[in-house]
Every structure is written in C-alpha cells, then in structure tokens.
Amino acid sequence: MKKAIVLVSGGLDSCVTAAVAKDFGFEPCFLHVNYGQLTEKRELKAFNDIADFYGGEKRLVVDISYLKQIGGSALTDKNIDVEDGAFDRVGIPKTYVPFRNANILSIATSWAEVIKAEKIFIGAVEEDSSGYPDCRKVFYEAFNNLLKVGINPQNNIEIVTPLIEMRKKEIVQLGIKLNAPLNLTWSCYKSEDLACGNCDSCFLRLRGFKEANIKDPILYRQYPDFYDII
Fold first, then answer.
1. 36 and 78 Cβ atoms separated by less than 8 Å
2. Cα torsion for 184, 185, 188, 193, to the nearest 10°?
3. pTM of the model as a whole
4. In the chain, at which end, N or C, are there fewer CB atoms within 10 A of the end residue's CB?
5. What is the rounded distance in angstroms from the CA atom of residue 96 to the CA atom of residue 216?
6. Hey, how many other C-beta atoms are within 10 angstroms of the C-beta on 113?
7. DSSP H or E stretch at residue 63
8. Please, is 85 exposed, middle or buried when counting C-beta atoms within 10 Å of its C-beta (0-12, 13-18, 19+)?
C-alpha cells in the first residue's frame, strides 16, 4: 500500500483529512507537532485517539517549541489574548502563528523522504477559515513547486489539500460520509476540558455543524448566540 504522511493536529479538519487519505487508498503515517500552543496536551490526546481509531502504527510526534519562544501569536504567548470569534474580521487574527505551516511541512517532507511516502495530506482550509496566510491555496502550490527542486530527485512527493476550497459545513458532511471519528476531535484554541464556544475555531466549527444540521459530538462550556442545540 502506498504511504502518505497525514498531518493531524487533532482538530475537525485534520481528522476528516485522515479519513480522505484512507479513502484514497493510502497507508496513513500520522504526524503531530507540539509547538507550545495553549491546548497542546488536549490536541496531542486527540491526535493519538484519531491515530488509534485508524490503527495508525506509524506515527511521529515532534516538538518545535521554538515557535513559542519566537512568540507573536495568541496561541503561544499568554500575554496576547485569544480573540473572540467573529465571521466578519478583516486582516490576520492574533491566533496566527508566524509561518507555522511551513515549519510543519518541512518536517513532514523530511519524514516522507525517509519512509518513501508519496503524499503529504494537510487539512488546510481557505474558503471558510480564520484568514491565515499559510492556509491559502497559493501557499501550497508554491510549496509543491519548492519540492520539485528541494528534495532528492529520486523521491516524488506532493502536498495534498483536499479540503482547501470547502466550507466547514461540507467538511462536516464529508466526515460523516466517511465515518470519521469527529467525536474524538478537538478544535478549541483556549480550553483543554470543555471547548470554550467563543474562539474563532469554535465559532467556525459550530457554524459548520449547524449549517449541516448535525449536532457537534463534543461538549462546550457555552454556545454562541447564533447556535441552537440540535
């Protein structure tokens, strides 16, 4: 079976991406990165739960806590408040971790070269996201061009972004269709016990479930005004 690196943060998008990789017939090799984020322990648990669900024998957890030392993000610097969720925000939110995905993709590429994986799946979303510059389609197109000149020419590795143009509603629906373990996921930026229901990630996730007319299987400390329990 062909191998693929699957980047799994533990969130909704990465879980559905893992399901897509399996559905495409790849043997998923699960990669998770700790970078000093506020919910690092809870995200790691979600990663392991998802990898266990898919019988992931090949998994790698990497620590790049230098991103916390660099700072500049509400996810890594406790002196910067995580903003409340908003659908009409203009500009890049405080939760953007500078150039994080380039760091993660570099690690994934190194591992892919060693284990001869053909694809790197990442659950980046541009259409219905917080507005991170490294979640745009053009970013991954550029990174794929870099791979054509920056790795061993005997290797042929491609970054795959199956959700990049989807809305959260469609991602939820795809996850249900592929029997992805959405109950094992964790998306909240702030909390590690009950999801806050108030950050951007919770907002986008809950709106997706609401629009899909499906009840989110995880529990929240509070629900935003727009959300009615289904």
1. no
2. 10
3. 0.97
4. N
5. 25
6. 15
7. strand 59-63
8. buried
Residue 95 three-state SS:
coil
152: pLDDT confidence band, cut at 50, 70 and 90? Answer: very high
DSSP tag of 55: T
**How far apart are the C-alpha atoms of 132 and 125, rounded to whole Å?**
9
Q: For residue 84, give Cα distances in angstroms to 9, 42, 89, 178, 228.
A: 21, 20, 10, 31, 19
Phi and psi at residue 200, to the nearest 5°: -55, -45
CA atoms within a 13 Å half-sphere pointing along the CA-CB vector of 134: 13
| Encoded tokens for 186 | 């964790």
What is the token pair recorded at 192? 């590690």
| Domains delineated in the chain | 3-182 (3.40.50.620)
pLDDT of 160 higher than 90: yes
Give 3-state DSSP helix, strand, coil % of the chain, rounded to 5. Answer: 40, 10, 50
Rounded Cα distance, 185 and 16, in Å: 10
Sign of the alpha-carbon torsion through 51, 52, 54, 58: positive
Residue with tokens 């920056």: 150
Q: Bridge-partner residues for 63, per DSSP?
A: 34
